[in-house]
Design goal:
Length: 291
C-alpha cells in the first residue's frame, strides 16, 4: 500500500473512532439525564404527601401551620410548609420536656402525688393559687410550678438535657426559669412545628433519654380526651413575643390502630392562644374522622 493510501486510511479510521466516541458520550449523557430525572421524581414523593388539602376555613383567619404525621404509614400532611419550618418560642408546650426532665431527676413523683406548694403570691390565674399535683399543674399550665421545677433542675442540668434532646435552638441563656416563655425584648429558645413533630416521634420511639416509666407518667397527664374513635394527648402553649401573641398545640392521637403526631401554631387573627390552636387541631381531626 502506498504512503498516500495509508494516510487516507488512517484519517478515515480516526474519523470513524470520533463518531463512535461522540455517539457513546451522547448515550451516556442521555442515560445520566434519565437517572437524574428519576431521582428528582423520587425526592418529590415525600413533598407530594405533604401537600394534601386541609380546608383553610378551619384556621379561622389565623396565620397558622399544622403538621400531622402518621407514624405507621410515614405520610405527613403539612399546612404551609414554610411556616412549619419557622422557629417560634414554644411557650408552655415546653412543659412536655420540663416534666420529663423533672421525672428523670426524681424531682417529681407520681402524677397525683403532692408536688407544687403554693408560695401564697396571688396571680391572675386563680387555678395557680393553690397547692398542685403534677396532673393539676400540667392541666392548668401552671407557670409558677414549672419555674420552681426549672430552678431545681438548674442551668447546667437543663442545658445538658436540652442538648441531648436536640430541642430547637437550644438557647436557654435568658434564664433557666424563663427561657421557654417569650417576652418582648427577651430572647427565648425557639422551635419549629416540624421539629416538635420530629421530637415527639423520637419520644414515642424511645429514642430520647427518658425511661419508659417516666414517659408513661407523661402520657397519663397529657391525655386530654377519649372518644370511641381514639385517645387524644396534647399540650397547649400561649405567649406574647415581639412579633405579637402566639398559640401552640402539640401532641399525638391514637386512632383506629394508627398513631398520629401533630403540631399546630398560630399568630395574627383574633386572640391567638393555645386554646384556639387546640380547637383548630380538634376540628381538623374530627373532620378527618380520627377523633
Amino acid at each position: 500500500m502506498s504512503p498516500k493510501a495509508k494516510l487516507k486510511l488512517n484519517r478515515k479510521c480516526r474519523h470513524t473512532i470520533q463518531q463512535i466516541d461522540s455517539s457513546t458520550i451522547l448515550e451516556d449523557f442521555a442515560f445520566m439525564n434519565r437517572r437524574i430525572l428519576l431521582l428528582f421524581l423520587l425526592l418529590l414523593l415525600p413533598l407530594q404527601s405533604r401537600a394534601q388539602h386541609i380546608d383553610k376555613s378551619f384556621f379561622k383567619g389565623y396565620d397558622a401551620t399544622f403538621v400531622l404525621h402518621n407514624r405507621f404509614s410515614g405520610k405527613t400532611i403539612s399546612v404551609d410548609t414554610v411556616r412549619a419550618a419557622q422557629r417560634l418560642a414554644p411557650c408552655s408546650s415546653f412543659k412536655i420536656y420540663n416534666t420529663l426532665i423533672g421525672l428523670e431527676l426524681g424531682l417529681i413523683e407520681g402524677p397525683d402525688d403532692p408536688w407544687y406548694t403554693w408560695d401564697r403570691v396571688r396571680r391572675s390565674y386563680e387555678a395557680w393559687n393553690k397547692d398542685l399535683t403534677l396532673r393539676e399543674a400540667f392541666r392548668v399550665s401552671a407557670v409558677p410550678a414549672y419555674q420552681v421545677l426549672a430552678r431545681q433542675i438548674g442551668q447546667k442540668r437543663m442545658k445538658t438535657y436540652i442538648e441531648r434532646i436536640g430541642y430547637g435552638s437550644g438557647d436557654i441563656s435568658a434564664g433557666v426559669d424563663v427561657f421557654w416563655l417569650p417576652r418582648p425584648g427577651r430572647e427565648s429558645i425557639v422551635i419549629s412545628a416540624d421539629e416538635q413533630v420530629e421530637l415527639l416521634n423520637k419520644l414515642l420511639d424511645g429514642k430520647l433519654p427518658f425511661s419508659e416509666q417516666n414517659v408513661a407518667v407523661l402520657r397519663d397527664v397529657m391525655r386530654v380526651a377519649e372518644t370511641e374513635k381514639g385517645v387524644f394527648y396534647g399540650k397547649t402553649g400561649s405567649g406574647t413575643s415581639a412579633a405579637g401573641e402566639l398559640g401552640w398545640f402539640v401532641g399525638f392521637l391514637e386512632s383506629k390502630g394508627d398513631v398520629y403526631v401533630f403540631a399546630c401554631n398560630i399568630t395574627g387573627g383574633e386572640n391567638p392562644s393555645g386554646a384556639a390552636a387546640r380547637e383548630i387541631v380538634e376540628s381538623v381531626l374530627k373532620a378527618k374522622g380520627l377523633l
